Amino acid sequence: IDGAATVAMAAAILASLTAIVWAALGVADSAYGPLVLLSVPHAFGIVWLLQNRLSDRTEPVRIDGLMVASLSFLCWFGVVPLLNLA
User: Fold this and answer.
1) What residues does each domain of the chain span?
2) What is the mean pLDDT of residues 42-51?
3) Do 39 and 15 form a contact (C-beta atoms < 8 A)?
4) DSSP 5-44
5) What is d(CA 73, CA 65) in angstroms, rounded to the nearest whole number?
């Protein structure tokens, strides 16, 4: 489980870092714009939620908040470009 969580945390951080690089270089600037930079705190929020989830292994708990945070992270790379291109 720790390996999968590490991969998930790394993927979130790398995706948000890619957004920073793309915004700095002007790659797909009309699609993403500066709004995609808000994916960085979202990624760190996912990392924080995952670390909290893994540190409390004594009893099973609901993962609704983690699921919402993880699934809504996709909006930065799907919904934001669609809105900017419209």
Assistant:
1) 2-85
2) 93
3) yes
4) HHHHHHHHHHHHHHHHHHHHHTTTHHHH-GGGGGHHHHHH
5) 12
Distance separating alpha carbons of residues 58 and 19, to the nearest angstrom: 36
Average confidence (pLDDT) over 68-86: 88
Buried b (16+ CB within 10 A) or exposed e, 55-86: eeeeeeeeeeebeebbeebeebbeebbeeeee
Q: Distance between alpha carbon 21 and the CA centroid of its chain, in Å?
A: 15
Q: What is the mean pLDDT of residues 15-36?
A: 84
For residues 27-47, average pLDDT: 87
Nearest CA-CA partner of 65 in 40, 45, 83, 86: 45
What does pTM read for this prediction?
0.81
